[in-house]
TrEMBL record:
This is Methylamine utilisation protein MauE domain-containing protein. The keyword Transferase does not apply. The keyword Transmembrane helix applies. It comes from Bacteroides faecalis. Keywords: Membrane, Transmembrane, Transmembrane helix. The lineage of its organism: Bacteria, Pseudomonadati, Bacteroidota, Bacteroidia, Bacteroidales.
Length: 451
């Protein structure tokens, strides 16, 4: 009796740990898969922090981020349904054995501000991440040791279909969000957000003090300047960065600063308080930007000029790269300098297009989805394009979940109605055969005894 009770307790404990791991891995894999470029940037931060950026080819951070999200999501789904138990429990344990010491190092030395394990959806401090990973590591050890006690929700004959569809779903979602934009935006530059409000410091809160540092070059000599001592136009722009001088309350948006390339003027307030429409072409590194749809971008600029709207290209690239872009694309729009991280946060596309009015983000487009002449048929005031694009995270999540769940429900239905029914029939047939053999044995024994 004690052994039976112990077995039940072990089974309950193993399955509780299994669902805890499943929830963590599904959430982590999902939020990474909807933002593959965000995962790429975080992996690049890791490689730079550890001095390993030159060790890997340029495509590695993006490919690694997509594969990591697929592995995490798949492991979570496998654990949830109780399929591929050996593979899932082993991968979960390997991941936690790797991540737990890593996050301890991050907590102690802080080479990156956050681990990025849940993307921008849920930002944890490095110590919070380490504590979370310790719990998950314990759960992973228990699940690995007791993997045979995990309850199955799908039969062995159908688990291949669940596995295959899970991989298809997560890779399709990642590449869709890479080609377009993330279907869920967890960043402060989400459509409908007001940029000045995101920069506001609550009354009484001490604000952080930031300073923009500009690297300029003249006569082969590079020097750093601030806005206060920005030199004349004979200096060529090389790079810009934002540094924290004094820590305080940090608003969601704290580093939005537009510096016009030709004049060196900060035009941030003019743009954010403009009651008219402004198109912002965001290309965090202009030399890496995709120019396959440059004709559409130039058409949008021509449309802006025709209707009196403002248009700026925001980049962190040096002036010589901007001049090369102009020569290559025929760009006539003005350029502004901005912090590279800010540009990456604003939109997950290089280039990407953003439409704002009075500081409010009305819409965003990836390079593959820029509006064309069939959309820009009138003034923005008369088009749905000129209004805030209506988005519902609840609706989006529900749609994505249904896209994943409905096929799996069909699989479960087939599994229950057909596969398991066949298994029950086969088991019943085997039992009948055993009973018939027993009956025949008894009859044979009876015949022998009668002699």
């Amino acid at each position: 009796m004690k052994d039976k009770h112990l077995h039940i307790i072990q089974q309950i404990g193993a399955n509780v740990c299994r669902f805890l791991l499943a929830a963590a891995f599904i959430f982590s894999g999902f939020v990474k898969s909807v933002d593959p470029l965000g995962s790429q940037y975080k992996i690049q931060d890791y490689l730079s922090a550890f001095g390993m950026a030159s060790w890997f080819p340029s495509f590695f951070p993006l490919l690694g981020g997509i594969i990591l999200s697929a592995v995490e999501f798949s492991v979570g789904i496998f654990l949830f349904f109780g399929v591929r138990r050996s593979v899932a429990s082993t991968l979960a344990l390997i991941l936690m054995i790797f991540m737990t010491p890593l996050t301890l190092y991050l907590a102690l030395f802080n080479p990156v501000s956050d681990c990025g394990c849940f993307g921008d959806a849920w930002v944890l401090t490095n110590w919070e991440t380490f504590g979370k990973n310790v719990i998950l590591l314990i759960a992973a050890i228990i699940v690995f040791k007791e993997r045979k006690l995990l309850i199955r929700f799908v039969s062995q004959k159908m688990e291949w279909l669940v596995s295959l569809y899970t991989l298809f779903f997560v890779f399709t979602l990642s590449f869709y969000c890479l080609d377009r934009l993330p279907v869920l935006d967890f960043r402060p530059y989400k459509i409908g957000k007001n940029i000045p409000e995101g920069m506001t410091i609550p009354e009484g809160a001490k604000s952080s003090v930031y300073e923009s540092i500009f690297t300029l070059e003249k006569d082969g000599k590079k020097e750093e300047f601030t806005l206060e001592n920005y030199p004349d136009s004979t200096w060529k722009f090389v790079d810009t960065r934002t540094v924290l001088k004094e820590k305080g309350y940090e608003p969601p948006i704290h580093d939005f600063s537009m510096v016009e390339l030709n004049t060196g003027d900060d035009i941030t307030d003019d743009v954010l308080t403009d009651m008219g429409y402004t198109f912002l072409l965001v290309a965090h590194r202009i030399e890496e930007a995709d120019d396959s749809n440059i004709d559409l971008i130039n058409d949008v600029f021509d449309y802006s000029v025709e209707h009196g709207y403002k248009f700026y290209c925001l980049t962190s690239s040096p002036e010589e790269q901007i001049e090369l872009w102009k020569d290559k694309t025929g760009a006539e729009y003005p350029f502004c300098q901005m912090d590279d991280i800010t540009l990456k946060t604003m939109i997950r596309s290089n280039p990407g297009l953003m439409l704002i009015k009075n500081g409010t983000i009305l819409n965003k487009w990836s390079d593959e989805d820029i509006p064309d002449e069939y959309v820009l048929t009138d003034k923005l005031e008369n088009l749905p394009l000129g209004q805030v694009k209506v988005e519902s995270d609840t609706h989006t999540i529900g749609f994505v979940v249904l896209w994943f769940v409905i096929p799996l429900l069909l699989v479960l239905g087939v599994d229950i109605l057909i596969v398991r029914r066949r298994e029950r029939r086969a088991a019943k047939k085997r039992q009948n055969n055993v009973n018939e053999k027993k009956e025949k044995t008894r009859e044979d024994n009876g015949e022998k005894s009668s002699f």
